[in-house]
Amino acid sequence: MGLPLCLFAFGQEGLSLAIAVFAVIAGYHFSFGIAVVSGQFGLRQLARTPVIHATILGLTMVATGTELPGWIDNTLKLLGGIAIPMMLLALGVSLSGLRLASLGQAGIVAAIRLVVGLAVGLGVARLLGLDDTATGVLIIQSAMPVAVFNYLFASLYDQRPEAVAGSVLVSTAVSFLTLPFLLLLALGQI
Predict the structure, then answer these.
(1) Which tens digits make up the pLDDT trace of 27-37?
(2) Where are the domains of the chain?
(3) Could you please report the per-residue DSSP string of 106-141?
(4) What angle is formed at CA 136 by the lines to CA 58 and CA 27, rounded to 5 degrees?
(5) Lowest model confidence (mean pLDDT) among 44-58, 110-124, 151-165
(6) Close Cβ partners of 174 (under 8 Å, ≥ 6 residues apart)
(7) Residue 135 buriedness (CB in 10 A; 0-12 / 13-18 / 19+)
(8) Contacts of 73 (CB under 8 A, 6+ apart)
């Protein structure tokens, strides 16, 4: 959700910065995040993480000005387009068994995610002395709802996937109320 919002708010420059921020956040999720959820960390596990490989390859290609052949680019776009609906289907299956009683705890986790994310984004932007556009992008990317792939991690490592699914649902629903204010803050209007 953060990438299109950054494009909307800041244009192509914002999207480029948002992709860089997303790559860093994804790197942490797919290394440190997996270590926390699984309870173990190893270089072998890190070496088997496709997102890490893709990020390194992407950075190398950007640095060298290399472009993928059209057929590889098209294939990767198709596969990438399939990933999001597959994650949403998995989340939907989990949400079908969600109990109303667990929404309270999901609401607390969702609120913590949104508030702490915003505070970290603001703090890092001030600490690094970022310009207005970079600050806005970091604020938006940091204050997004709980990501769907957190549910997939919880499901894979059997770490209360129903609770995580509830947090995804509640934080996404709440974000529809908070996004206008977040965008005004990111654009320096608040």
Answers:
(1) 888 888 888 88
(2) 2-186
(3) HHHHHHHHHHHHHHHHHHHHHHHT--HHHHHHHHHH
(4) 30
(5) 44-58
(6) 107, 110, 111, 114, 145
(7) buried
(8) 67
Give residue-wise pLDDT tens across range 84-94.
Answer: 787 778 777 76
Report the half-sphere exposure of 53 (CA within 13 A, side-chain side): 7
Take residue 39 and report the two structure tokens written for it.
């309870």
Question: What's the N-to-C CA distance of the chain in angstroms?
Answer: 21
Give the closest residue to 21 by CA, choosing from 188, 136, 141, 189.
141
With 90 as the cut, is the pLDDT of residue 76 above it? Answer: no
Neighbours of 32 (CB within 10 A): 12
Tokens of 61: 């290609």
Rounded CA separation 187/137 (Å): 9
Distance CA 8, CA 2 (A): 10
CA-CA distance, 127 to 142, in Å (whole number)? 15
Neighbours of 77 (CB within 10 A): 10
Residue 20 and residue 141 in contact, taking contact as beta carbons nearer than 8 Å: no
Name the residue with higher pLDDT: 138 or 46.
138
